[in-house]
Each structure stands twice: as C-alpha cells, then as structure tokens.
Amino acid sequence: MNEPQAFVPQKIQIGISSCLLGSEVRFDGGHKNSYYCATEIESFFEYTSICPEMAIGMGAPRKSIRQIRDGDVLLIQSADGTLDVTEKLSQFSQQKVTELGYLGGYVLCAKSPTCGMERVLEYKIGTNNSTKTGVGVFAKALMDAYPHLPVEEEGRLNDMVIRENFFTRVYAYDDWRKMLASGLTKHKLIQFHSRYKYLLMAHSPKWYRELGPLLADIQDLAATADSYFEGFMSALKVKATRKNHTSTLQHIQGYFKKHLSARQKEELAESIMKYRQGLFPLLVPITLINHYLNEFEVPYIADQVYLNPHPETLKLRYAY
C-alpha cells in the first residue's frame, strides 16, 4: 500500500526579468543577478522569467537600445538609429501579457527600456538629451493589462518598507483570487473584508472607512466586488505608517480587556508604546498579540490577516 503524500500548497507564481535570476541576457552578455530574488526568496515562489529583448531574437551580446521620443511617437532604437525594434517589442509585449493572467506579482529590472517600471531614460530624437520620464515597453503593457497586479523593481526591494508592502500585496492578491475561484458570494465578500479590516486600517484609514459601506447593501455582486477590489488594492499600495500601525494595534488591544491580567495589559500597552517611539520593531507587539491569542479565544482577532499577512520566514516585519 502506498504511503499518502504530504500536501504541498501551490506556490504563488511571480514574473521576473530573466537577468535578475543570473541569466546572461543583457546587451553586453552579462546579467544583473539578484541574490535576494535568486536565493533568499526563491523557495517561496514559482518564477516565470522573461527577457523581451531575447524573446524577439536580439541575442546576447547585442546593440543596446534606448527609448527615443519623436513628438507623440516613442521609438525603441539603438543610439545610432541603425537598429529599430519598436514594432517587434510592442507586438511581443502586447501578446505576451495576455498569457500572464496567472501571475500573482512581478519583479522588474530597473532602468531597462523594456522592463523598467519608472524613471526610464527617454531621449529626444536626434540628441543625447534625456529625461527620466519613461516606462519600459513590456512593463507598461503588463501594468496596463493588470492594473492591480503587485509590480515592483528589484532594486527598490532593498528598501524594507517597500519590500514588505510588495509582498503584503502579493499575498493579498493571491488570497482574493482564491476566494473568487471558490465561487463568489455576498457572504464570502463580506467575510474577506472582515478578515482584512485591520490591515486596511494600517495602510489607509481613508480606504478603510470607504470600503465597509460599499458592502452594506450589495445589489450587483460582480460590480460591487470589482469596485471593492480596486479600492482594496489601492489601499494596500499605500505604505503603512508607524502612526497607523499604532492606532491599529490599540484597536486590537481593546479586544483583550476581558482576558488579560493587569500585568499583561501593561505589558501589551508598553510594547505598543515602545513601538510607537521607535524602540521596538512592529514584530514585538505583533508577537505578543499572537502569544495571547494562543492563550485566549478571541476569534475575530485570530482571523485578522493583519497579524500574519505573509509567511513569518520571509522576515518582513522588521521594516517599521
């Protein structure tokens, strides 16, 4: 008799620029290997790596290309104008993104005329004058097609606040899609919002206040869900602040009043205050709250995604 196989949860699929995983696909035949992406977090995700320039047959090494602005027209050419891949890159990008609906996030290579998320050099035609106003051709097609998809540049992930924000969105985006895949109902939508209330409060009190009433009288479920998700992802894109985290923690603290001893109440209040003063990382009061949840039954708080928005082993809650 065969032994039953252990259940292995399906990993979230993340798109990534090929050069960030060490592939020698850059114009000079090199790469921009990211130790963080290729080694530290690789076990958490399933990668789909793409290099648009290699995909259209440019090879490596190759002539470097740049974005060139000619009035309302954006050209993708070599500096001397002898190589023009504008149409090829546009066609590839538009077609390829239609195949990427399964992705739960994307990590792009900065400054690239194809993959840069922002501040890509855009040259005025016939000159060497440039402005950092461009967006990579492929990156733009991706973000236009999936406006709520969590997208970030690899270099920006060195900022711990940006890193934590990105992966919070990745896991929330995945959670939403799993909820939809299970069959959308009013109950599931309201339950989803209930679980995310305090995460929303920490990121954007404004959106927290607006999203609840949206679900108060659901007439058209699909339209309401679309509006909710747009606001939900917009809220999570706002970086949580120490002030908002403190307010959120204090709201959660209130649910333990009937359970904690005087000493425990003081301990929790002190950890929140020291976090507010910058003496403790967010992980300290969060860990204490999770500890109390193991001792006392507070179902509403135990269900809050805020306490565990991503795997603890990703080590993301040292940002604040």
From TrEMBL:
Pfam families given in the database record: 2-thiour_desulf (PF04463), DUF1722 (PF08349)
Name of protein: DUF523 and DUF1722 domain-containing protein
DUF1722 domain sequence ranges: 197-311
| Classification via InterPro entries | 2-thiour_desulf (IPR007553), DUF1722 (IPR013560), UCP037004 (IPR017087)
Instruction: List each coiled-coil range.
Output: none
Organism listed in the record = Shewanella aestuarii
